[in-house]
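Hi C.,

You asked whether I'd gotten around to modeling the 320-residue construct. I have! Everything is below, sequence then structure, no commentary in between.
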Amino acid sequence: MRPFDLTAPATVEEALAEPGTPLAGGTTLVDLMKLNVLTPSQVVDINALPLRGIDTSDGLRIGALERMSDVAAHPGVYPVVSRALLQSASQQLRNMASIGGNLMQRTRCTYFRDVATPCNRREPGSGCPAITGSNRMHAVLGTSDACVATHPSDLAVALVALDAEVRLVSSGGSRAVRLADFYRLPGDTPEVETDLRPGELISEVVVPRLDWASRSTYVKVRDRQSYEFALASAAVALEVQDSRVVDARVAVGGVATVPWRLPVVEDALRGAPATRESFERAASLAAEGARPLSHNGFKVPLLERTIVRALLELTGGSDL
């Protein structure tokens, strides 16, 4: 880790005036600094800022500095959000990591984290060795010739399914951005990962009220039971009346370069009977446009099965 200066502002205004890299829980930033992937000369400890609070009175509002474990345990938080958090990292990390930091975490691509190898996200124009190299954990959706790294956040997948937005503050004011629009596809500029502008901070996450999201879940398939990133995951909320699907929200993770909303699957579910057959038919549309690599073609059928499993879990069907 290279030397750096540390400041700890007491107000949002003071923090926004600092030119350094924000530090909240530090569970991602410190790791990357130790690896010399990130080498900020100034770090701004933002933990004293008043960016906390959880409000479930009308939808869901979460302060950016709330800890993951506190949000997961809070009564009234949508099940899909709580379950996504509880399946993230370890208990110790969830006790430290902030909501804003979780949404801003960087990819776990091994090439990105190894400064001895090329990586277009870390060093634009240097190449993407994952495309022809070790790519079992990499994306099949939203990829480009410049980057195939998956987005690592479980929470972001759940929030995208629920149409959440992030509130961003700067010295010039504030703005709101849908989380689905906040993350950028890699295209030719994979180093630009989000819509966060210089001098901005995430202040809170806002989820609109969705009463039927009380029937929601998050299913995560991974190589081991805990402390592992997803091979495929599905965040699903479902409204069912008289054994038919009235409405649905579906987003997936572990398979795409950004949290991946699936409106085509949602449309196929609406009006359909709540049966395994209907769920399988809808899920078969999930991987449209997929570009499997040499070692991750298994993610296409795995993605479909993961969605069906989540739907069956919500409707009392048998597991896959």
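If it helps when you're writing up: The CA atoms of residues 78 and 214 lie 6 Å apart.

Thanks,
B.
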